[in-house]
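lol ok so funny story. i was supposed to be doing the assay writeup but got distracted and ended up predicting the structure for this chain instead. priorities right. anyway since i did it might as well share w the group, maybe its usefull for someone
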Amino acid sequence: MRGLLVHETRLLGSIGRWVGRRPHGVGRGAGKAFGYARGQGAMMFGFGFVCVLESACMAVLLRNHPAVHRVVLVLDVYTLLLVVGLHAASVTRPHVLGNTALRIRRSAHVDLRVPLASIVSVRRELVTTHERGERGSDRLDLAVGAQTTVTLELSVPVRYRPLVGRPRDVRLIRFHADEPEALVRAVRDRVQGSVGVRAGDRTGDGTP
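and the output, tada:
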């Protein structure tokens, strides 16, 4: 319950960051940001529209029950705020490539730091079908708009702590980036420059 409360607080706080154009964890030498929210914009707009439509329908149905309508209206407005907050968190919490780690995020509920020294392969790879990982699986899929565009393979597992459920160690991470080529290139350059190892040897389209 505490985790869910913190998550919702972050979502609502992200709306203010979005309006004020104040991204989280970016700037002051934190690293280079890479967005991933572009692919979900239409879907989130659709969710918001459905919330507004549902609220209007309930207002008509409950017009003779003002007390009940007020309760439903509060719930509808709060739900709409959470939908807006979900998208705002995705916009204001981008992936961040620092000097020693790649910070992979998704909205307000995933914030995974991957040490550059543990990356053995990074490639652009479009995946649109993600099977549910089996128990004990070392693969993590962070799809946005039902797709991932970047795949990381690690030599040393990192601990992933989900919002609900038990933490687990992962070695293969698939996630989405709006500009996957730029992210892959930047990660390779940073790994080669700061660690001295080669981060992968191919992209999803076969380009070296």
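The CA atoms of residues 117 and 124 lie 19 Å apart. The chain has four helices and eight strands.
back to the writeup now i swear
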